[in-house]
Amino acid sequence: MAGDTEDDPTAIRSLALSAEDAVNAYAYTRENPGAAVLRVTPPFHGRMRARIHVYRRDDTELTGAVHVPPGDVIADDVVADYPDLEGELEDADPSETERIRKRHAEAVEDWQARAEAAIVDAVELETDAGSHRVDVKRLG
Known about the structure:
37% of the residues lie in helices and 28% in strands. The protein has one domain. By secondary structure, it is of the alpha/beta class. InterPro entries: DUF8009.
């Protein structure tokens, strides 16, 4: 049935995404409350566009959307290298806080540039039918 196919994310063969969206979504989730993902919404077909989506409550059961964690489309070694601010602020003298935050912001910018160049070639989508591997195509 055509309707069933349009709601089935296993019809997806490739995801087109902006590297900047993926990197910004990852950084947003690390730095803010809430979460940012790459979202794909039905109707599903062979090539889909994944867009950045920020949320506080997961609505995938209501919408049928597929949420791809941004860390899944960035190479693991680059994800692991994300600059951590918390450790620095815990032991910091209050007079050093602004300098540490500025240095952290610069480190995140550097990381973002590296991460944009480290988008993977394929990703596993989690579906009701299990994992489904799709190609990743960079836009731009």
